[in-house]
Design goal:
By secondary structure, the chain is an alpha+beta fold. The chain folds into 4 domains: 159 residues, GAF domain (Beta-Lactamase), CATH 3.30.450; 100 residues, 2-Layer Sandwich (Beta-Lactamase), CATH 3.30.450; 82 residues; 154 residues, Heat Shock Protein 90, CATH 3.30.565. The chain contains 15 helices and 17 strands. The chain binds adenosine-5'-triphosphate and magnesium ion.
């Protein structure tokens, strides 16, 4: 007999503990046998696990087997007597080891284990475990007449157990989330398909049975251990969020660690689920933004009369004063004219702010929308801007795509939106620069049109990027910008069920991308 070489940190102990638990469970013998085969198969990652048992009359051996293996059995069922007679046998088969181990009790052979063990560091352990399990099974087998009935009953139960297991495995694999399970020794016991996918994915074969810290070696060991320990000690679900660049682009994940309890209510495992919530978070962000815009709209609706009326009065007064200016002596006239001019331009500015604010209070989905040609809207905007003083200095590079589908839109509102974006580009390019206006289908999604405004201006500071769509955020000197252009543009794009994205590099330029669904 080979002396077992089990040490405390090997998975064999756990398998043995599980087998012992099954055998002492008081369930019917056939159920226990089937469960033992299943435990060995799973716990030792066996590719094949057949337990050949001698029939009650001693005439032949019958496999306690899984459905997959059954197909291959008939060919060499008779050979089992020979294996039992010749003693333990091992040979290499395609990266694995085939092991045949006779089961002997009271010097009489009662069966044979036929297993295929993946080559690797657990091979020896698997061997030793099988030797011990053979000894554990002997009393059970000796106490029962292994009639044909029992054997086929065991085969049936095994099939049911496997089917049940496969079903559960398929459920776990179908989940659109990454899922893995660790035990008390932090060893990985389940690893779903989603965790295998992607450049950072690890195959199930490489993950199962290993310590989680070895597999997830990019995460700090202490921190990860602390997270698992918290679940083991508190028994509570833990949730956290994290950003990751593992896929090459920034993604946001919600990680949930769930305690799993054994029959005796102890926490035996921790299930970890990783969900990609990038889209959800962006939607939250957009919702917060539109709520903010709506609040500005309500405020604007409330104050517009209050402000418009005094503005009208101021304008009327300044016009009345202008009429009397000729009566003034020459010296005073010039100074007064200047004051009146300032009053006039400042009142106009107030009007623009109020108008800008009013945009937010317009009811969404206003007028029924006609189908528009995006290139025509761009041309119309460029035509209006042509007369702007500073626009003359810019080079406009039109890259307008052919054959783009028309889509329902409010072309006036789109002009207003594109105007805000192009005026910003113009402001960012104080000296001569190039503004590229491109329309095309979104290369990533055929059901979207993509309009890009690419400037060679100052660029936007990284810390300002999250703020530029906020109402009243401006970096322009006082009197130049109200900080409403982009928030109005945002609202307009949203009315068209589209979205805006920005890429910017300081000193290089900025690209505003506007996506419109056309499907
Ligand atoms: N193309 C761009 N290049 C560089 N910075 C930009 C660009 N577009 C927007 N910004 C930045 O975003 C800020 C907000 O833009 P937004 O259009 O909302 O307001 P504004 O241009 O400052 O004022 P308003 O448009 O109301 O006159 C700008 O002040 C600027 O800092
Ligand atoms: Mg602006």
């Amino acid at each position: 007999m080979v002396a077992p070489t089990l040490t405390s940190d090997n998975p064999g102990l756990e398998v043995l503990a599980e087998v012992a638990k099954v055998l002492s469970s008081g369930r019917p013998a056939d159920e226990r046998l089937a469960e033992v085969v299943a435990v060995l198969r799973r716990g030792l990652s066996l590719r094949r696990c057949r337990l050949w048992l001698r029939t009650g009359d001693g005439s032949r051996y019958i496999p306690i087997t899984t459905p997959d293996d059954e197909k291959q059995v008939p060919g060499y069922a008779n050979a089992v007597s020979a294996w039992v007679a010749t003693g333990p046998h091992r040979e290499s088969v395609a990266g694995a080891t085939l092991l045949r181990l006779p089961l002997v009790h009271d010097e009489a052979a009662f069966g044979c284990f036929e297993v295929i063990i993946p080559q690797g560091r657990h091979e020896r352990i698997a061997h030793d475990v099988l030797v011990v399990v053979a000894q554990m099974l002997a009393p059970l087998l000796a106490a029962h007449d292994l009639s044909q009935d029992l054997v086929s009953e065991v085969a049936l139960r095994t099939r049911e157990l496997e089917a049940q297991r496969n079903f559960v495995a398929r459920i776990i694999d179908s989940l659109p989330v990454g899922l893995y399970v660790i035990d008390r020794a932090y060893r990985i016991r389940a690893w779903n398909r989603k965790r295998e996918a992607g450049t950072q994915g690890v195959s199930r074969e490489d993950a199962l049975g290993r310590e989680v810290f070895e597999v997830l070696d990019r995460q700090p060991r202490d921190l990860l251990k602390l997270e698992f320990d918290r679940v083991f000690t508190t028994g509570e679900i833990q949730q956290m969020e994290m950003d990751s660049l593992a896929t090459g682009e920034p993604r946001h994940y919600r990680i949930t660690k769930i305690p799993m309890r054994s029959d005796d209510d102890d926490i035996s495992h921790v299930i970890t689920i990783g969900e990609d919530v990038t889209g959800w978070r962006q939607a939250q962000h957009r919702l917060a933004q539109s709520e903010k815009l709506a609040a500005v709209g309500q405020l604007a609706a409330g104050v517009m009369h209050e402000i418009n009326n005094p503005l009208a009065t101021i304008l009327a007064c300044s016009e009345a004063l202008a009429l009397r200016i000729d009566d003034l002596p020459e010296k005073e006239r010039q100074a007064q004219q200047e004051y009146l001019h300032i009053v006039d331009t400042e009142v106009q500015r107030c009007r623009r702010i109020v108008d800008g604010l009013l945009d937010f209070s317009r009811p969404k989905q206003s007028s029924p929308k006609a189908r528009v040609d995006i290139n025509a809207v761009i041309e119309q905007t460029l035509f209006l801007l042509k007369h702007h003083d500073r626009f003359k200095w810019l080079t406009i590079d039109r890259q307008l795509g052919d054959g783009l589908p028309q889509f329902p839109a409010d072309s006036e509102r789109l002009v207003q939106c594109f105007m805000a974006l192009m005026l910003n580009a113009m402001d960012a390019m104080n000296s001569r620069g190039v503004l590229t206006v491109r329309t095309h289908r979104n290369p990533q999604r055929a059901d979207e049109i993509l309009v890009e405004f690419i400037d060679t201006g100052t660029g936007i500071r990284q810390e300002d990027l999250p703020k530029i769509f906020e109402p009243f955020f401006t970096t322009k000197q006082q009197g130049r910008g109200t900080g409403l252009g982009l928030s109005v543009a945002y609202g307009i794009v949203e009315e068209h069920r589209g979205r805006i994205e920005v890429e910017s590099q300081l000193g290089v330029g900025t690209n505003f991308k506007v996506f419109f669904p056309v499907g």
